[in-house]
Amino acid sequence: MDFLAVKASEIGVPLVRPLPTILAYARGAQAGQPVSHVLEEEFYAHVDCLSDLIETACLRAHVPGSVCEEVTQRTVDLARSEKENLISSVNELLAHLSNLSRVHRTALRAELGAKPEIYRDIYWGRVYTKKITLIHQEGSPEALAGITERLKNRCSYDVNLESEKEIAFRPMTSDLILFHPTRGAIRPATLSAAEAYGLPIVILMDLGKKIEEADPVAVRIAHQYAKSGLNVTHSPFTPLRLFTAIDMCYVDHMLRKPTFAGARSRGAVA
Predict the structure, then answer these.
(1) pLDDT 10s digits, 6-54
(2) Where is the domain boundary, 125, 150, 165?
(3) Of 92, 107, 125, which one is at a domain's C-terminal end?
């Protein structure tokens, strides 16, 4: 069974924020992949967070309480769902959320656009803050500053910067490694050093605004990384694209390796 197709632009990015974790968990758990206690907690925290986000948006946008309860009840149903029914429960939630956003489009869009910081604070306060190590190539301060700002302030991650030269010589206390190559391919030794940590890895490849106009060399490098099994996300690096790629990669990694707990296993809990 596939997930119901919904448009993030119609629902609003603040309300979409918990969904990648919810979707990735539901897909893996229903497929019978082993689920750790840590990952279960991650799932339930994101479901509860989504309920809070919906309730806050409805209250501030003056959506009738009965309408809001129709949607938040679906988060309750999802949290109680058996694993074999997770995808259908998610789809029921998505259908109600999409309908809410369509019927009350004007009021909700105005609210979510006017006060995004309220919803970022709710997300930040309700779920575990993932610790991201962003590995960069020297000589690209502007690109690095833009990505870092989005990851911290618009995706709600704790970001630590490391250069390619440093990664093999420092202890890694993170949940995920993020590469942002701005001057060609990642050095093989750097990639090998990163893989040795056993953390999920996402590579951000800057292919310009339109992939059909991208540098053929950069496209070939991106395809090579993807072919080797690495998670590759290409530009434009919107907050939606970033947190979708990172959260899904994180959950998929935990499903493949049930003993993985990331920074939490090292005592570095936000």
Answers:
(1) 889 889 999 999 999 999 999 999 999 999 999 999 999 999 999 999 9
(2) 125
(3) 125
